[in-house]
Each structure stands twice: as structure tokens, then as C-alpha cells.
Amino acid sequence: MVLPLLKLGTLALKTLSKPVASRLKNQAAVHPRFRQLIIDMAQANHRFTTQMQRRIYGHATDVEIRPLNEEKAVQAAVDLIGELFVFSVAGVAVILEVQRSARSEARKEELRKQELEAMRQRDEALAREVELLRQKLEELEQLAKGRGLSGIFNFKNTNTEIGKTAKPA
Length: 169
Fold this sequence. Notes:
This protein is an all-alpha fold.
């Protein structure tokens, strides 16, 4: 019951994070200080990705990279912020799910340990009982050697009684 509700809550959280990211993107584009910060961030990201692409494709890397215009930089930065927000929410949801799963596995492992301990204790009790029965059997064997089998089982008395009942017939 808890697992489907947890999965549904995680899905709802991921779904709700997308409109929040969209609103965050809109607010980031109009706030003046934050706007300049994200423009600088977008320009740095543009330079980094362009240099990486040039290295990958074997082009010259010492060439000057033209900066993005302001609107493209803002758009690239707010897209990056929105994606980072959605990714962060999904990452937190995955971490929480892993922790929940680990706690569940720990509870299962504890139950297995308790069952194993109970089985070990039962095994020890049975071993003690077998040893006790073995000792009693040895005592009986000692008595049988001392008295003989007829002393323990009264074969003489039963044989004579059988003989007495057999004669009248």
C-alpha cells in the first residue's frame, strides 16, 4: 500500500517541478541582477562547450569565440536553470527512494537474523535433548549389562506365564 502511494507522490513531485522550473525561468529573465549573473553564466558555458566541441572535432582552439547575444544568453541560461531544477528534484526523489529501499532491506535482514537465531537456539535445544536421550540410553545399556536382558524385560516371568496359559489349551 505504501509503495504505490510513494511512487505516485514521486511522480507528482516530478510533474509539479516542471511548472515551478518554468516560473523560475521567467523570473530569472526579468530580475536585473540575476539577469546579468545568468548572462555571464551562459557566456562561460558557451565558451566552455565551444572549446570542447573544437577539441573533439580537431579544430583550432586558439580562435576567438564570439559571445552570444544577450537574448540568446538569457534563454540558454534560463533553460539550463530549469533543467537543473527538474534534474535536482528527480535526483532527490531517487535518493529518497534508495534510502527507503535500504531501510526496507535492513528490516528484512534483521528479520532474517532473528529467524536464524531462533533456528540456532532450537537446534541447540534439540542437540541438548539428543544428548540427554543418549545418556539415558547409555544408562539403560549399563543396567542391561549388569542385570542381563531378563532383568530388564522380565523374559522369565513372561515365558512362564505364556507357558501356563498355553498348557490348558
